[in-house]
Amino acid sequence: MPPVLEVEAVRKSFGGVAAVSDVSLTLEPRRIYGLIGPNGSGKTTLFNCITGIERLDAGRVSFRGERIDGLKPWQIARRGIGRTFQVIRVFPELTALENLLVVTRGPRAEAERRGRELLEFVRLGPLAGEYAGNLSYGQQKLVEFVRMLMTDPTLILLDEPAAGVNRTLLNDLLDAVARLRDAGKTVLLVEHDMKVVMGLCETVFVLDHGEKIAEGSPGAIQADARVIEAYFGR
Amino acid sequence: MTRLLVPLMLVVLAALTVYPIVGSGYGVRSVQQVFMWITLAGSWNLISGLTGYVSFGHVAFFGAGAYAGALLVASAGWPWPLAALAGGAAAVLLAVVIGYPCLRLKGPYFAIAMLGLNEVLRALVSYFEGITGGGNGLSLPTLDASVPIYYVMGVLALVVTGLSWLIVTSRFGLRLMTIREDELAAEAMGIDTFHHKLGAFLLSAAGPGVAGALMARDQGYIEPISVFPLAITVTMIVMALFGGKGTVFGPVIGAVVLFVAQEIVWARYPYVHPLLFGAIIVAVVLLMPRGVLGLLQQRYRMPRTI
Questions:
Q1: Which among A51, A74, A82 has CB closest to B191?
Q2: Distance from the first to the final alpha carbon of chain A
Q3: Which residue of A93, A100, A108 to mutate against B (max B Cβ within 10 Å)?
Q4: Which of A17, A95, B76, B296 is deepest in the core (most CB within 10 A)?
Q5: What is the pLDDT of residues A90-144, one digit of tens each?
Q6: Domain count, chain A
Q7: Residues of the domain holding B81
Q8: DSSP structure class, residue B136
């Protein structure tokens, strides 16, 4: 069985700044991976390279053994890569339920049933008919999360799921992520909150100035001299 | 609310159906104009109100339909109803040709490109005098068909409004709105935004094309400045904005209210009439950016299909 995702020597520059330089990583099925690094280390750019929002300058990205770099974002999404954004991007003038419906194909009744189910799952059932723009920050984050789940992705990319979320909500989210892994999905999450990364991830990649400087178990990463240097300076 | 609305609409439809029998020539012509504006504002709403891609050259489809229809009647001797359909087809064809490059442009660039397109078309029509009559215009054989055209225009307005209803209540329509809300997020969620935009654009071109051909037949004479004026685009935009962009009946309300207002003001004070439109644009943008219906929807939590 091929890896879920293979990123090989991916490079992306903006002007003279190398946002991502020669980063390679491999994701195996049914695992939770963390992607950490200081601000500006290229985490979100790497996400955008994987999801087709940015074009690669060099390198290749393969999903379940097939190349996906060069495909359009919607084509990549349909192959089974779902994502959330660092800054929430719900559709504010659509209701919570409509936010989920738009990403579905197939019979509408079935989609609505599943949409309501997912909203119940994150305790937003009573707010299904509310415009997403009227919901609180945390609620919008949940809508974005379940909207991504509506596409039933194989690989889930989460960009800072913990940012701006209260503890209770966060624990619910992390539970959900662990359950998704148990259900056979692969998760890659960008996160600043070390506790989240260390508690949840089985393997952690560390980026600094666009380069991958370390990869390993959370324990090994925490002890890695280069990682400590990248975060705290020499 | 809905229970009241349906009988009300049936009564209005019945009244409009018998109106040409009892109404004056001026009245029939005026209602026919309202039908035309409902068609234009409703069609503009399909692309611009739903996807947020503001077309500043939508009259180009009206003009293309007018010339296609008029040429087929005048030169090829087609019956006008068939020529009207061909006018719609010509407008859709034009939309295909310009949709591919222009719908890749974002925001203001699309608006400007559409504006430019309309000017180019007007120049082309003026230039190819041999076919179009150029600046001298194009005359059609005389024919009094104002009552049949009234009915056809009415059906056209009904079709455009019905189509809007179907779209707004469908997931296709909701996806069009996601383009307006956040195009990048829509893409990342697996929505093929380009083909959605293109679909909406083609649908939005058909109505104006047919309306242009009908108008050409009704007036019997067209010239470049009469069928490609920026004023028609601006009027349909203001009507849709006034009634409520992105709603089903907003463009209908806008077309009816503003047409009536325009007629009243035009009759009494011909010189302040452009001023009225300017004032309405400013008032709508400042005070109720969602339009009359948008405001009601928000305040009374009405469904977006109203």
A1: A74
A2: 42
A3: A93
A4: A95
A5: 999 999 999 999 999 889 999 999 999 999 988 899 999 999 999 998 899 999 9
A6: 1
A7: 31-229
A8: G
